[in-house]
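W.,

You were right to be curious about this one. When I first looked at the sequence I had no strong expectations either way, so I just let the prediction run and decided to look at it fresh. Below is the sequence, 136 residues in total, followed by the output.
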Amino acid sequence: MEKEFRKDSPPLILPERAMQFPPTLALALGSSDLALFLQELHASLLSGGVCVDKHFWTQESLDGWHRRFPWWSYSKVRRTIRRLKGFQAYGRNYAIIRSRVLSGNTASYTIEYGALLSLLQDAKKARTEEREEVMA
């Protein structure tokens, strides 16, 4: 039997695009915030990236990123970008995103998918080794 909701009750889910990220990405990055930002950057590249030098770039200001993540402070947005630019784990630097100015004063961002793939492979290897140690 289906539950009946009161007609005057507020909607539980708003008609907005949901922000999602793969759990494996959050596990590899060690942070759901980094995974969410990276997934949003990826979606932006797919929906409207500009191809320059065989890479897709999306142009976004700090204000633009803050509008996408209004519950984050400006400093958190800057910190998140900086962390992904120089991401370190498993004794390596992965530099998952790059930024540069393509036009005007607004930065453009791209994902280094090769670095991201290396990180995901290293994370999987580390989890496998950790499980083997526990089982031994």
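Here's what jumped out at me. Strands lie at 50-52, 55-59, 88-89, 92-93, 97-103, 106-111. And, maybe more interesting for your project: The longest strand covers residues 97-103.

Coffee later to discuss?

I.
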